[in-house]
Design a protein that fits this description.
Length: about 120
């Protein structure tokens, strides 16, 4: 192999290893059990999902739409929604601090947060 080919191969290997490391960092599970449910920039709920009982509740949006939020065995997800693409439903359970569950049509975000003193 010539020197330029070796350099290109080395650069590709470095980029591949960097991409794998970045993907692992982004997908790391959260150490927190506290979540915030935010709509239109306003915190609606702050919950400790580890201590919450299994339940389902509905959050309605200003446009008349809805998201059904489900807490099961210390995990949270949007189980149903009337938004057109249902990306929030297809996201599944909240697993990562860096990747929240988002419903853009209803402006709803479910994300991990720091531990709170009082539960809303």
């Amino acid at each position: 192999m010539t020197k330029p080919v070796k350099l290109i191969l080395a650069a590709v290997i470095v980029l591949f290893v960097g991409a794998v490391a970045a993907a692992m960092f982004v997908r790391r599970p959260s150490e927190s059990t506290w979540v915030e449910i935010v709509q239109d920039g306003k915190v609606l709920y702050t919950l400790d999902i580890a201590d919450s009982e299994n339940r389902t509740f509905t959050i309605e949006s200003a446009d008349g739409g809805y998201n059904k939020v489900e807490i099961i065995d210390g995990a949270i997800r949007i189980s149903d929604a009337d938004c057109p693409d249902r990306t929030c439903v297809n996201t599944g359970f909240l697993r990562s601090e860096t990747i929240p569950i988002v419903c853009l049509p209803h402006r709803l975000i479910i994300r991990y947060t720091e531990e709170q003193e009082d539960e809303n």
